[in-house]
Amino acid sequence: MNGEDCGRATRVIGEDNVAVPSHLYKVILARRSPESTEPLALGAFVVPNTAIGFQSQLTEFQVSLQDLEKMSGLVFFPHLDRTSNIRNICSVDTCKLLGFREFTLYLSTRKIDGARSVARLEKVLETLKSSGVEPDDYFLSRYGKKLEELKAKEQADIQLEKLS
């Protein structure tokens, strides 16, 4: 995105000069469930394409849908009746960004699924602890299940090797 508020220069990287946007946007139109009769909730956000740290609040990056459409040159939800009762998503949800601990736990828990060996799984736990974050019950539960799964797979692989 390169609007007046977002800066003019576009940085490029690599030998192919791939453009790196100065800002990123996200538009959310939500309802608790398809059957819900409550009003839709809408939020539009423009975030700088740099680290924002853990002190910022998501509401600091909220913009109106109309402003985002002007900045981006796009029209979002063209069939949406904008005169209907649409709520600000940050009044329906907290729009609270995760703190360092929660964010680190979230990423580490996701890495559990990607571990393909016991050693790799143990590295996930080691990295989490070295960041100063103690694993929570959810992380430990997922970790334990994945550890059992990987140990069983390694044992099966050993048995297959013996048969070969």
TrEMBL record:
One of its GO terms (cellular component) is mitochondrial inner membrane. GO terms for biological process: apoptotic DNA fragmentation. Residues 98-146 form the EXOG C-terminal domain. One of its GO terms (molecular function) is metal ion binding. Transmembrane segments: none annotated. InterPro entries: DNA/RNA_non-sp_Endonuclease_sf (IPR044929), Endo_G_ENPP1-like_dom (IPR001604), Exog_C (IPR041003), His-Me_finger_sf (IPR044925), Non-specific_endonuclease (IPR040255). Signal peptide: none annotated. Residues 11-82 form the DNA/RNA non-specific endonuclease/pyrophosphatase/phosphodiesterase domain. Pfam families: Endonuclease_NS, Exog_C. It comes from the Eukaryota. Gene3D superfamilies: 6.10.250.1250, Extracellular Endonuclease, subunit A. Belongs to the DNA/RNA non-specific endonuclease family. This is Nuclease EXOG, mitochondrial. The lineage of its organism: Eukaryota, Metazoa, Chordata, Craniata, Vertebrata.
